[in-house]
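User:
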Amino acid sequence: MKTLLLLRHAKSSWGDATLPDHDRPLNPRGQRDVPRMGQWMREQGLCPSLIASSTAVRAQATAQGVAEACGYRHELVSVPQLYLGCPSDYVNYLRTVGEQYPSVLVVGHNPGLEQLLELLTGVCQRFPTAALAQIMWDDLRWVDLTALPTGQLVLLQRPKMLVA
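Assistant: Predicted structure:
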């Protein structure tokens, strides 16, 4: 059984117009949502065996905060191709993941994550900031992952759904 968790980075700040897109930090709402989502993941038993993130500052901050809150105790993996990546970038990365990781969390961006969710599950869903999708396969090796709707969408949790 394999589990893929897709997490869109939390809400970012547009306060400094001089910052390149890659370098934008989280805004106060994003900083609030990250630990809430991580805590919820811990409560649901969704702490992954591997966390991989886009190199963007907002994605790295989201990955780090969620990792701390959910109890993840391993190194975070930075994956440059996930920064504004298209679905094939995510699939190509996931195909390199070792079989010792039954559950993988990738932290990335839209529209790539929304498109990836639809590609892997056949389900089209809006994917707001800090939202988490859980996709599962009964019998899959990461190296065999294809861009086909073979995964089962188990949940799509949005931060607004959590009790404050």
